[in-house]
Design brief:
By secondary structure, the protein is of the alpha+beta class. The model has no long low-confidence stretch (mean pLDDT 84). The chain has helices at 2-26, 40-46, 60-65, 69-72, 84-90, 168-171, 254-257, and strands at residues 108-111, 131-132, 147-152, 161-166, 183-184, 191-198, 204-212, 215-223, 232-237, 242-245, 250-253, 262-263, 265-271, 284-296. β10 (242-245) and β11 form a beta hairpin. The chain has 7 helices and 14 strands. The strands form 3 sheets. Strands 1, 2, 3, 6, 9 and 14 form a 6-stranded antiparallel beta sheet that branches. Strands 4-13-7-8-10-11 form a 6-stranded antiparallel beta sheet. It has 2 domains: 40-94, no CATH class; 108-296, Jelly Rolls, CATH 2.60.120.260.
Length: 306
């Protein structure tokens, strides 16, 4: 009887083993947990917003937005959105790096000095020293040309001043409308007069004046220390600058003096009179001007545009 049961015991044991093996195969294997330390690539693919993934390899936007990375890490963050100076110095021809000279705003550019065949409109230059492009040592900030007056302050031929004017009614073919106020700024919400100047290593002074009803409203700009050979932008908020009346004492804001904001002309004066520069170290006057515009809103000087 004992021998009779042994084969059945063997069969039963084998069946139990197979059943256990079958159950083991059906159970899913437990996946190994992915961590940044064990597999950073896989971890950051699955967890892109985890702070550990704020690295150039995984999220350059996050990385370049952190702390001073944008300016300190020029290898990874030399991108227009984070370090435009770095990007544009490396990619000066990129469209994102172009300087806005006010072409599509307000009245736009009123003097670009590109027509060198004729002097600027209504030029007053008694000593005939003003000229395009000076001695040629300075490159134009816009286009290929600019306008200049260079003179030793003690030179007996120093004219004291030279000027040119934006005078639309006098620049047209009608000789009878010169007194009309055709510079209309009344439709501009935030009118700005913009111009670039460069004095090389010398000194310069420029006066800008708006005229209406034969009365000038003017503002001086003195650069006794010069601009160190670089183009310097002046973007003048016409609602915030105090003007003089007929070159006298300061009077008020131009939009208070002329509420209608309509003018006959804009005069740009090279003020080279010796008395303008009382400092004996200032012995030479050198004024270079380019890209004069009237815009609705200011223009920003881009740091990579020299």
């Amino acid at each position: 009887m004992q021998r009779l049961f042994k084969p059945f015991q063997l069969i039963f044991a084998l069946g139990a083993i197979m059943l256990l093996a079958s159950c083991g195969e059906d159970e899913p294997k437990k996946e190994e947990e992915i961590t940044f330390e064990t597999n950073p690539d896989a971890f950051c693919a699955a967890n892109p917003f985890d702070g550990q993934c704020c690295l150039p390899k995984y999220d350059v936007d996050c990385y370049c937005s952190e702390g001073t990375n944008a300016t300190d890490d020029t290898e990874n963050c030399c991108l227009f959105n984070y370090n435009p100076t770095c990007f544009c110095e490396a990619n000066p021809e990129d469209a994102q790096c172009s300087q806005n000279f006010g072409v599509d705003s307000g009245l736009g550019v009123i003097f670009d000095f590109e027509n060198t065949a004729e002097p600027p409109a209504d030029l007053f230059d008694p000593a005939q020293l003003a000229q395009y492009d000076g001695d040629g040592s300075i490159t134009a900030i816009e286009g290929n040309h600019y306008y200049s007056l260079a003179v030793d302050l003690s030179d007996p031929d120093n004219p004291g001043w030279s000027d040119f004017k934006y005078w639309p009614s006098k620049m047209d073919d009608n000789p009878d409308n010169d007194g009309e106020a055709q510079i209309d700024l009344s439709g501009l919400a935030n009118p700005h007069l913009n111009f670039w100047v460069n004095s090389g290593q010398d000194s310069l002074a420029i006066t800008v004046a708006f005229r209406v009803n034969d009365q000038d409203y003017d503002k001086d700009y003195l650069f006794k220390a010069g601009t160190a050979g670089e183009w310097k932008l002046f973007s003048m908020d016409l609602s915030d600058v105090t003007f003089r009346t007929n070159y006298g004492d300061p009077t008020g804001k131009i939009n208070e003096l002329v509420p209608e904001m309509k003018f006959q002309m804009l005069k740009v004066v090279f003020r080279s009179a010796t008395w303008v520069f009382a400092d004996p170290d200032n012995t030479r006057y050198n004024a270079n001007i380019d890209a004069i515009s009237i815009t609705d809103g200011p223009i920003e000087q881009l740091p990579w545009v020299k």
